[in-house]
Structures are given as C-alpha cells and as structure tokens.
Amino acid sequence: MKAILTVIGKDNVGIIAGVSNQLAELKINILDVSQTIMNGYFTMMMVLDLESANCNFGEIKQALNDKGDALHVQIKIQREEIFTSMHSL
Amino acid sequence: METTQIMETIRMIEEEKLDIRTITMGISLLDCIDSDGARARQKIYDKITRLAAHLVETGEAIENEYGIPIIHKRLSVTPMSLIAGASADTNFTAFAKTLDAAAKETGVNFIGGFSALVQKGYTSGDARLIQSIPEALATTELVCSSVNIGSTRTGINMDAVREMGVIVKKTAELTAENQGLGCAKLVIFANAVEDNPFMAGAFHGVGEADSVIHVGVSGPGVVKRALEKVKGQPFDVVADTIKKIAFKITRMGQLVGHEASNRLGVPFGIVDLSLAPTPAVGDSVARILEEMGLEAAGAHGTTAALALLNDAVKKGGVMACSHVGGLSGAFIPVSEDAGMIEAVEKGALNLQKLEAMTAVCSVGLDMIAIPGDTPAETISAIIADEAAIGVINNKTTAVRVIPAPGTKVGDAVEFGGLLGHAPVMAVSQESSAAFIARGGRIPSPIHSFKN
C-alpha cells in the first residue's frame, strides 16, 4: 500500500530528520520526497511504501501524529488513491 | 503526482469542507415478510443487524485511511408498507420501533424506508402505514419516512395528497415539544427514486439487489471556492468550472463507494452527485448562487443560476463514476443552509421563489418551517403544487415542511445538528380547502406536444 505524507508547519531545525527517523522506526520506505517553503511555511510531501511496515495504518497514523506534536508541525498520512483518483482517470 | 494536486485535495477537504455526506447501505426486507407481525419484526431486526454489522466501522476505517470525512452512515430498507402489509397488525409503529432498534444496534445515524408508494392507489398496507406515521416518528429517533404520491406515468393521487396534509400536521403535533421535529423526518415525493442515499427520503426499491452500497457526496464549499477564481467571467466559464470541480468531488464518491463495497462484500450501487449543504459556514448552496453575482438567494436570476449549477454538477459528475443515481443535483433545504437562512431572514427569499427553484434543481421544498396554525389543506395544496412540477417535468420533487406548533411568521425553529435552524416562512392565507376536498386523481400528463 502506498500513502502520501504531508508535513506543514513553521520551519524549524530537525523536521526532516525527525520525520524520517520515525518512518524508519516504523519500517516505512520513502519512495519520493518534495520539500519547499510556501508563504514561510515548511511544506513537505513524501510518497511512502507501507508494504513492510511493522504496524497497522491506525498505529502509523497515531505515531506520526505524536511526532507532529513533538515537532510542532502538522503531519497527515493518507492512502495514495484519494489523490490519484481525484486527479486522473 | 504533482505536489499542487496533493495540496489541492488537502485544501478541498480541510478548508472547503469537502466530505462524503453518507454511505448508505440499502437492504431488501422482502424475505422478512410474515403473516405474523412479531415474527416479521424479528426477521427484520436479525437481517439488518447481520448485514450492517460492520457498516459503521468500515466507514470509519475508510475515513481514517483516506483522510476524507464521511459524515453519516445510514441504512435504507424496502418500503415498510410492502413488508408490514402482509401482517394483520393495524398499527405499524412497532415496525418503526424495530427499525429504530436495529439502527441503534448497528450504530448508524439514520434508517429510511418507513415508506409507502401510493402514486396510483392504496393497498391496505399503505393505508395502515400512512396512518401510523405520526406515532412512528414521534416514538422513534432514527427512523425516516417517505410517501410517494405521484409520478409522471401515473399522475397525482389527490386522495393521498389530502391525507398527507393531515399526517404532516399530526406529526408536528405529536412532536410539539421538539417544535415539530418529526416532520423533518417525513418527505412527500413525486417521482421518488429507488436508490436515493439521502434522508429523509431514502428507501430501498424493489428493483434493487438484496443489499447494496450507495454513496452521497457533498461539497458546496468547494464549488464556491472554485467560482471565486472566475469572478466576472461569462457563464461558459462558470459552467466549465463547476463541471471540473464536480468531476473531482464525484471521483471521491466513486473511490469511497467502491472501497466500502469491496470491504463489506456488498455490491456497489450508485454515487448520488448532489451538492448537499450543511448549516456550517462555507458549506452553502446559496453562497454559490451569490458567487455567480446575486446579492442574495431569491433575487431575480436565482432560478437561472440554480439551473446552471444543477446541470453542470451532473455533467461533471457523470463522467467521473461508473453509476450515477439517486437525486443527483443541488439541494436547497432552507434550515440546513446558512445562506438560505440569511436570505429568508432578510426577506430576499420566499416560498414562491423556492417553489420556482424546485423546478430546476434536484429536490423540492425542503426543511421549511411554516406557521403552526397552517391548515392541513394548505399543506396538501403545497404538496400538490410541488408534485405537479415534478410530474409534468419528469423529475423528482418533494415536500418536507414543518408546521412548527405555536410558531408564527418571524419566529425561528432550532433543530440543531445537520438539520439546522429554520426561520418560519409565510404561506398564502387564501384557502385551498375546496380544491383539496375533491380527492381523486390528477391524470398523468401527455408526453408529446412538449412546449
């Protein structure tokens, strides 16, 4: 299962490191990354492969939520199909 | 995948309140028919709780994984007059209570199908069901009721129209302590559809499979935001913009519907492409009409604006999913739409204009509070007018009015939640009593010589 992770918040030291470490702990592979600063906000998107993840979607979501709170950013994870189905036939 | 597309989807959900309004599981109760009422009710309870056992948790799992809110999970069943009619029971309230209990057990938000189809005539089951509606709605919480009193093929059953005026009044009186809330769960249709996932008019038609999953989408806020970007441009651009955004909204419905159908092992039915408002700010159909250039909903031009909106939503949505059905269009419930409420309160929108609007949108006079002392005959006449629009124009129309006991024009009725807040609107003071007293049937219209 592929998922899209989005991280939005005030730029700070260690966001990318924090997020990638958390993903590594969850055994989630990062397939693609895009990061930019939009209107002063740190904005990062990642395409993830959850195939070999060591817990279920709900637990992954919770772990990333907690990580987001710790890093003072908003982290969302959604299955990829919601984006592909909306924008392509 | 473009990052701008990802951001667009997230913005539509987070800021513009794009959501899936409902996943509705339709369940046939035809195999629960029994000459013994108690036995029939046991079969009904068992079948619903068995088939819908995982509906709510499946909806929540999809919501969680895809990050799109699914506001309601609902059930619709075979019109109860067909099921309960086989029993010797004279009052069908016990059947409504069974539906209520089954709905509560499964955790859904509403169950529709305490219904009768009497467009041409009554069976004895239809007569008993309709007489039971006021008590059934007053003694249950989640049960919704609908009665189809006309169709393009059969004309309008004016006996049923007359009776429904009385039933609406009685329902309001029995739920007087909640300002006539029972009437918010009762719809009178012409040309009712068999696969509607929206309440209060959902029922599971007899031509449907044993069980099926329908999805109703929403998203007026998304349409409004898209139109903000084309301010002042010609209607060609407006129509195109609505089509494109309706396409995207519908794709969500298709995805969620298929996913729910796969996980539950129940066939996928249809996506209902309706723009369904809620009382929340930014989730209003009236604001879309204003965005097209009208000072308020109800101004001259409103009917044209709504016609364009309704048509463009269908055109955009049809290509986006495999099966479109239900009501599919724009809803204009007054109490559930902040812009409509405001328009009524400032005197821009009245019942006459709303009636005209129903000729070009997907439903009818919906969630409108009227004075508590409105005569039953006047309510019947409102139903007859609305049915005539539907029957002649080959479309679904409906009436869901609340003669809120003890209220007069200028008062407001507070229902709360998705049902919202309804300013009490004026009805004509001229009597329709002799017209309604006639009864009989208005013949079906001719479908040649169209002009």
Automatic annotation (TrEMBL), chain A:
All copies of domain ACT, residue ranges: 4-78
Gene3D superfamilies: 3.30.70.260
CDD domains in UniProt: ACT_1ZPV
Origin: domain of life: Bacteria
InterPro entries to which the protein is assigned, alphabetical: ACT-like_dom_sf, ACT_dom, UPF0237/GcvR_regulator, UPF0237_ACT
SUPFAM superfamilies, per database record: ACT-like (SSF55021)
Family under the similarity heading: Belongs to the UPF0237 family.
Protein name (record): UPF0237 protein JOC27_001090
Organism this protein belongs to: Sporolactobacillus spathodeae
TrEMBL record, chain B:
Domain of life: Bacteria
InterPro entries: UPF0210 (IPR007841)
HAMAP family: UPF0210 (MF_01221)
Quaternary structure annotation from Swiss-Prot or TrEMBL: Homodimer.
Similarity section: Belongs to the UPF0210 family.
PANTHER family per record: UPF0210 PROTEIN MJ1665, UPF0210 PROTEIN SPR0218
Protein name: UPF0210 protein JOC27_001089
